[in-house]
Amino acid sequence: MLEKTTDPYYVRLKNRGLIHIEGADRKNFLQGIITNDINTAAQGQILYSCLLTPQGKFLHDFFIHEGEDFLLLDCEGGERAQDLYKKLSIYKLRSDVQLSVETEHPVYALMSAQNVPANALADPRHPQMGYRSFEKPEGVEEQKFETWDAQRIALCVPDGSRDMIPDKALLLESHIDKLHGVAFDKGCYMGQEITARMHYRGLAKKHIYALKAANDVFPAQGADFTVNGSYIGTMLSQAGSYGLALLKDSAIETLPEAGFEVLQTPLLND
Predict the structure, then answer these.
(1) What's the pTM?
(2) DSSP 162-200
(3) Whole-angstrom Cα distance, residue 60 to residue 172?
(4) Segment 99-114 mean pLDDT
């Protein structure tokens, strides 16, 4: 397992953007298209959710912040933020909703259990993912992004389109249900049918796994992951000795002989 960094630290996350949503219909608008239940959102908390295709394939993930009369979506930045904005605009139709986008916006991850500022909110995906803030934390040492990234990977937490291919990835293969990003007891939403079917019937035959490489060497991101010449999946993101890979469940027992340890994270033991 990852060696824990005991001293508090923060990193500035890479490539983050922001979607502003205002208007009387803002919650009803989102409720019909996102995977989580917007009615559980509350000030002082973050709600994690996704937008899917009608076929249940991943498009975007984001963190929803609720204000008194607005919602903020902390999302991937750049072209990805612009794409999310365009897709939301299509679904707006005649709803009383106003949308705007910032393709670049600072977002910080704070890894600390003490003296957490009021503007830093707990990352809802995993207790060991720390806090997120739009403001730079004060009085805490800054670390390299890779320090946080290795922690994320060792916990088997995918990071947007770095680990979930748009129009291809399925949420249950990516553990988004275990990361509190899917509400199975809400009404219909885009892609709900296949997501629910996979959940209740246990149809997923491959999943994202957190791995540790004995020699710190992984296949390139997006490359085939093979063991003894046999294809078993696809390599995703990595940081140092730790990496994520989308692998066939039936092939996991072959990994040790190839020099890879499957990290038994709380997610995988769930």
Answers:
(1) 0.94
(2) GTS-TTT-BTGGGTTTTTT---TTS---TTHHHHHHHHH
(3) 15
(4) 94
